[in-house]
């Protein structure tokens, strides 16, 4: 492959896979800023506001395509027309009242449950790639790998694709529930083998899990941690941004934040039980929970309902803007990430530490790799699934000011390891692509930002 590469990112929009989307678009935006030509191909729904000006965006298919059991070209066209209308107007008619989880199930069946992976969509992807002169097709969710492999087999063998395993555990669980897991393994093995490069994973624990569960050889996998925007100035965003969304917040009581997808497996119930225990002991705190959901409003309602049953005072919201998120993380005493599932990574943990905010996480999964650097730690861990231990660790962090200051100081320094520019450097190195920016080395890897 010669000449300067042109990148395209195939990413699942609509709030259904926020972690991989953030990672994809961070990488896409940074590559564009370095002078590469970049395209974004949205699957199900687009988010143009997240993409830098100058990056070409296309909707590969609308979510309505997977409203029913089989991919529907007619529903896809209706969805594409509805997407041109003002937000919300016409969307319910084509998407129905079902949550996004049903669309993911139908998407999985289209990609895995048939001999060819949604042939019409694969052909469309190949047409997009040819039209835009794409040399490097980046798939931030490896479950989409069979689609890229099908596009190559249909005559689009002018490009190479790279897989990243992030967010695929949800698809794997779905495949098990649908009786498709063995076929899922076979198709992902074929997609990984068909790529020129080893597939990327976000943590060492994630690598072990992908190898064990999906049967992909470890030598065909590489660890590159996801990158975030590291805040190098300790100036807090204004508090009024928070009070616009959470008007009941006060300044003299510590804010404990849980930020992320409000779905099963994220452990919000554990956090609510832990906070109830602390409040019964007279510990003062303000609990904030916010983020999107793949199950429409039902995920958030379940959290609010449980908080009401427990008598826990809760400041709650759905998705919030990046400005509100940054203000919330900066003003929080700590971030709690109480995931029940074995998480390969957790971008919000690195984001919180970049603000100098200590974190509290479970003691399993790749997320534990984020908070330590040698003897330094940017947070505490609690025993997984144990709300009692979560309450103890959270209470300790609220009461011990010396510990909190130490963790806050460490957190910002540790977050430097996950700077987005480092991620870009390592991805380009992995692909064998020289960066147009000449720069010094950091940890033996060229870096575009002098530190």
TrEMBL record:
Enzyme class: transferase
A molecular function GO annotation: glycosyltransferase activity
Record-linked InterPro entries: Glyco_trans_1 (IPR001296)
Record key words, sorted: Glycosyltransferase, Transferase
Segments forming domain Glycosyl transferase family: 249-412
Pfam families: Glycos_transf_1
Enzyme nomenclature, EC number: 2.4.-.-
Segments traversing the membrane: none
Superkingdom as given in the UniProt entry: Bacteria
KW Glycosyltransferase (keyword) present: yes
Protein name: Glycosyltransferase family 4 protein
